[in-house]
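> @MW can you paste both from yesterday?
MW: sure, first one:
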Amino acid sequence: MSATIDKIQFNSHITLDFAHFEQLYQDKNQDIFVEKYKPIASNYTRSLVCFEPDGDYDSKGMTKEALGYRFDIYRNEIGDSKLVPIYKTSVGQLSIVDYNVRNQKEYQYYVFKENDETSSKASLSNTVQTCWWDYAIIGMTLEDEDSKTYKVDPSDVWLFQSNVSSDSTTQNFSKTTYQTLMAYPTVSMGKSNYATGSFSGLIGRVRKKGYDEDATLLEQWNDFCANPQLKLYKDRKGHKYIVDITNSSSQIADETREQATTVTVGWTQIGNADDYVIIGD
C-alpha cells in the first residue's frame, strides 16, 4: 500500500529545527529523540527540510524543488584517490542513476550543492557495493558531446540473466611484421587496439510463475541491435566496453512448451567506457 502526500501543515505554535521524512526500513527508523541529534540525508531520505539557519547539518534544503539549487556529483572508487565528475543536475533534480560502474566494486559519491553564487562542502553517500549476475547491453542517447555525457532510457536496458554463456574476447592490434636481412623481423604497430567478442543468453526472464517471453520481444531486440545508438556492454566479471552490436542471431527451443528464445550477440568495442558519463533519471 502506498500514499501520496500533497500537503503538510505544521501547527503555528510549534517551532521546528527540521523536518525529516524517511522511508521505513527494518522494524523502525533511528530514534531522533536523542540529545544533539543532527539529521543526515541517507538512501532512505524522501525529504529533508532544515529551518534553523545556523544549524550544523550535513544536508539542508532537500525538498522536492531543492530550493533552487543544483547538485554537482562526483564518484570515487574505494581505494582510488581520484574523484570522477559524474553529472551536474538541473535545478530541482534530486536523483540520477549512474550506469557506468563495474561489478564487484565499492563506490562513494560526493555531492556539492550549488547555486549561482556559492558551493557547499561535499555531502558523502553511503559506500555502494555493486553486485549483479546479469550481462547487460545498454543503449545511450547523446546529451552533451563535449563532456561525452549520454542519457539512458530504461527501455534501452537489456539484461540477460539465464543460460548466459560468453565466448572468448579477442584483443585486436594492428601489427605488421617486416622481414629484414637481420636474424629477427621488425614488428610495427598502428593505433588500433580494441576488443571483440560475443555472448548468448535467453532473451526472456525467469519469474516465479515460470519463463516469461512475449512474442514481440525478439522484434524489439532486433530493432535495438540495428539502431545507431552507442551501447554500453557490461559483464559479470566487471568488464565494461562502449560497443556496437555487429550481429545477432536467435534460436527457439522448439522442444519446450515456453518456446524460449536464445540470442547470440557479437560486439565490437568502439570506445573506452571510462571516457564517458552514462546516467539515467
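MW: second:
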Amino acid sequence: MIELKDFGAVLSRDIRNTVKRTMASTATLAEFKAKAKFGHYQPGWKELSDATLWEHSIYFGARGGSPTGTSDSPLLLTGELRDSVQSSSDDMSAEVGTDNPKMPVHELGDGNTPARPVFGPLIDEMEPFMQGLVDDAVLLEMGEK
C-alpha cells in the first residue's frame, strides 16, 4: 500500500521523468530548427553583400555548386558552422548552441559583419512550445488530460 507521503514521491518521480523526456525531445527539435535557419534568410537579416556573394560564387563554382543551389546562402558557406550546432538536455532544461568561435560574430554582429541571429530568435520561438509540452506532460501524468 502506498501511503500519502509516498504517493507524492512517486508522482514527483513520474512527473520528473516525463519532463525529462519532454526536455530531450525539445532539445532535439530546437537543434533541428536552428540548423534549418542556416542558408536561408531570416526576418531582420541583411542581404549578403556583393563581395560576399562573389566569394560564395567562386567557392561554390570550384566545388560544383552550393548545397542550396545558390550562392546567396547566408551562414552556409561550408556547412561547418551549421554542423557545429548541438543540443543537450537534463531533467529540467534543454540547451542548443555551438562552441564554434565564429558564431558570436554572426549572432551579434560586429563592425564588419551584420548580425544574423539564430539562437536569440530560436529561444523566443521555442519557449511557448516548450512550456506547452511541459504543461501537457504534467497534466497527463496527473490524469487531467
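> thanks! The beta strands are 86-89, 94-97.
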